[in-house]
Amino acid sequence: MNKGYLGDNIPKLGFGLMRLPMIGEEIDMEQTISMVDTFMQKGFTYFDTAYVYINGKSEVAAREALVKRYPRDSFTVATKLPLWDNVETEEDMQRIFDTSMERLGVDYIDFYLLHAMDKTKFEKADAIGAWDFIFKMKEQGKIRHCGFSFHDSADVLDEALTKHPEAEFVQLQINYLDWESDNVQARKCYEVCLKHNKPIVVMEPIKGGSLASMAESAQSVLTNANPDASVASWAVRYCAGLDNIVTVLSGMSTQAQMDDNVSYMENFQPLSEEESATLNKAIDALNAIPTIPCTACRYCVDDCPQQINIPEIFKAMNGYKQFGNAAGTNKPFNQWNYNRATKDGGKASDCIQCGSCEAHCPQHINIIEELKAAAAVYEA
Ligand code: SF4
Ligand code: SF4
To answer: What is the pLDDT of residues 67-99, one digit of tens each?
Structure first.
């Protein structure tokens, strides 16, 4: 995109404030302040929070660690308007907007987004006048730029941008593994933004932390190519090298993650041709890892006497097969998803091997054996 676009002078690493370091239920402010200081000292400027992050504590932390301690024109801050169930009127939106301003301690917001938009929320935004509201705030000088974050298909995005050309930017989930995914449609959504000439803020470049640590067969491709580069750095640099990017958000939780990110983004270089080829080999290695071919049709579920949520357990296991332990922990990847999948029904180890599920499975999955493997991983 030509110079002069929204974001051409914004450094390509943004600080996502949704996973700040915690001590119990409270944000670890000492570490947060240290991370903010490192980020600012290295010349970065973009901070991303939301009304709902950490139950509102993220916006307050941004005020204490950033707004109160740095000149207002030395950083930009983004926050978001949720269009959840309890937001139905202009008064509701005004209350949330005013609360965000107060929590942040600012008299204007640089980037204001309709949060987590999908087909249903676009319909709601039209119905309750959310677009009119945010542009009214912009006219009043309380917002610099209006956009939205997005979680739906490329077709829905195309429709939304056709209907609302006034949107100034879009926040998209992009990472190298989901680039061609049918579910996330990262490439297709990215191309829709190019078609509509909308700059893009990238979120989840590391796929919620997944791409910071992965199965050895894939990870070794990256670490052998460059033993000094973190595995996460490949994911962030991949996104930052795309055209038309405002910035790439990284939801950092530790000073160590901050130090790593700023080390390679301070003098950012896009992936070279050779590095891109290496990354493609790592993607091939990840995709070559055998996973359970469950299509989530759920034919197996109804007759299970133990009420085991088989497809959701398999979904968790497929993440584990590709990513092993969650980055920086001894916990199996997707432990939280497994716990959620088994909260209201049976655990994998509750299977009594009646075989009913296998008789229903069109994919001929050896469900009983796969559940034994899941129990060994998640119930150990
Ligand atoms: S074999 Fe196990 S998982 Fe399958 S239906 Fe029977 S109890 Fe449920
Ligand atoms: S029937 Fe087979 S493919 Fe369908 S949800 Fe169950 S395990 Fe998955």
So the answer is: 999 999 999 999 999 998 899 999 999 999 999
Q: Which residues contact 56 (CB under 8 A, 6 or more apart)?
A: 99, 103
CA nearest ligand 1 atom 7, residue: 351
Residue 238 near residue 202 (C-beta atoms within 8 A): no
157 backbone dihedrals φ, ψ, rounded to 5°: -65, -45
Which domains, ranges and CATH numbers included, belong to the chain?
Answer: 13-281 (3.20.20.100), 310-378 (no CATH)
Nearest atom (ligand 1) to Cα of 303: 5
Nearest-5° Cα angle at 55, 100 to 113:
45
pLDDT, tens digit (0-9, with 9 covering 90-100), for 242-276:
999 999 999 999 999 999 999 999 999 999 999 99
Nearest CA to ligand 2 atom 7: 294
**For residues 171 and 191, what is the distance between their CA atoms, to the nearest angstrom?**
13
Q: Which of 312, 350, 352, 361 to mutate to test the pocket of ligand 1 (most atoms within 8 A of CB)?
A: 352
